[in-house]
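Section: Multi-chain targets

For targets with more than one molecule, the full set of components is provided together so that the structure can be written out for the assembly as a whole rather than chain by chain. Components appear in the order listed by the source. The example entry contains four components.
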Amino acid sequence: MEMQQVRYFLALSRTLNFTRAAEQANVSQPALTRAIQQLEAEFGGPLFHRERARTHLSELGRIMLPYFESIQTQTEAVKAHAQSLRKLETARLHIGAMCTIGPAMFSDLLLKFSRDHPNVELQVSDCAAGELLERLADGKIELALFGLPEGPDLRFHAVPLFKERFVVCVSPEHRFAQQNVVRVRELHDEAYVNRANCEIFDLARREFRGRGAFVRQVFTSERDDWVQGMIKAGLGFGFFPELSVTDPALVFRRLVDPEFVRTIMLVTVRGRPHSPAVGAFIRQAKSFKWPSDDNYEAMPEDDPLEALAVA
Amino acid sequence: MEMQQVRYFLALSRTLNFTRAAEQANVSQPALTRAIQQLEAEFGGPLFHRERARTHLSELGRIMLPYFESIQTQTEAVKAHAQSLRKLETARLHIGAMCTIGPAMFSDLLLKFSRDHPNVELQVSDCAAGELLERLADGKIELALFGLPEGPDLRFHAVPLFKERFVVCVSPEHRFAQQNVVRVRELHDEAYVNRANCEIFDLARREFRGRGAFVRQVFTSERDDWVQGMIKAGLGFGFFPELSVTDPALVFRRLVDPEFVRTIMLVTVRGRPHSPAVGAFIRQAKSFKWPSDDNYEAMPEDDPLEALAVA
DNA sequence: GCCGAGCATGCGCGGCGCGCATGGCTTCCA
DNA sequence: TGGAAGCCATGCGCGCCGCGCATGCTCGGC
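Its structure, encoded as tokens over all components, is:
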């Protein structure tokens, strides 16, 4: 059974006349005749009763008709859908975001992109860094929002978007709240509330120890709301990307000597051809005016609160 | 877009490996590769990302997949259905019956056929003689139960099943009820209750007049129950096929000088190939022992009541 | 009895889908 | 680090098949 035969069958079932069906299908009458004969041989019985002016579907043909119509419908639908995708009329863009990256910085970009491309459906899923790269490689997502001190390996291509400092986050009653900045060595023996999903803290802890700062880890959770709740309750300090501190009752202070910074990047698979929607998103992300874009470098190291007021 | 391409696409979407997909589809790997390339050219974008061990569906491919699966499903379904029809596993038999033919004589045949061919669905529709032949010619029905004094024209093929007399039908109080038979000339000036659907009465009326019998038509209805009700009420006499007198309160008497007889026939379209179900039905109808089969010819003309007792 | 409509058939051609062989590229492993 | 193996693309020639053209066959209508 071939597509041609389906088309010819449907044309004939409409016209009930081999000659006119052939005209509709843009083939010669013998070609259509033989195609129908083939179908009939395949199905083991006549699909039409040939009776000159009274040619009509046989019982077998009547039964087969809905199937052929369904096949034809699906075939046209798949072509139409492909056509609309080519014109970016309808598309889906799967974006993965590391779960430590909050929506705050991206909502404006996503909103703008969504308005400029109303037919592109955005789908954001979050996961840990390792899983993110795996899903990117598998093609389950086309783009990843990635934020670690170093970019991913060479399989991937990364567009840096902006940098984000890590801060120490405490309750207003904590002694750190009285300082402008917190130095790493001051963290020694402090109670530490851990975010289980924080990919960077293992690196940071080594850095801390190199400076003689050994923290006491007193709590761990995968959930940022629980972590922030415990910090607010005074359990200890937290180590957060600046933009991930969402609880307004918390106080955060810059961590210095040394500073910890991560770069938020837009990551794709190197060498993989991407859809128009991906290209459009990357262009827009590159040209987007990120809030900290032009004043982060100029931020005075000793007056973090003023700098933070900008963001 | 060709059926092969659909099959190849689905094989590849399962294996995610061109070589193994080609094996599944029983073609060489280059053949499958080129088929996929054609599809991609037609759809204007890649369906798969080729990445050695990580080959996977592209976004476009993921969107197209359900369509292709649907097409494949329908294609398999149509083949399976054709296969089951060929084996008479499932079939429908459309039978048309002239509305003047009651079910009484056929219920046994239909019951037997239905039990012998449990997968054949019988569908009986009734209509007038002219419409019957038209629907037969159009292929809307495969078989017709036909009952007129003469068979249909040469376009059709008729298998006679049995003969049926026409009778005069009256209320028990009518004077005809006192007679064994009614002669046509006795009908002169009698009140006649007409069955609108009776195709034969126009012929009979001419015959009556040739014998000097002019009847007074006092009532007409398409519905046999109304007609029989009026006769029972004593309005007049009716002209019925013997087996169509269903009201037990009515009396019927043979009409003679001349007799009117119709032959009940099984009619098909001449030269039209018919399905196994039609063939099976005709064979069974021919071999069926019709109640009046062997004693109708022997029926004594002057003792109709005895003969009728047989039927 | 001629003519036209309607479908089937004979025939030769051209395209295309195929397999085979091979090439480019990467990954894995010794 | 070089060679082998896996994976996909490409070049090439062949053979099938679906096509159009021409024609045949059989009805039905004037």
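DSSP finds ten helices and twelve strands in chain A.
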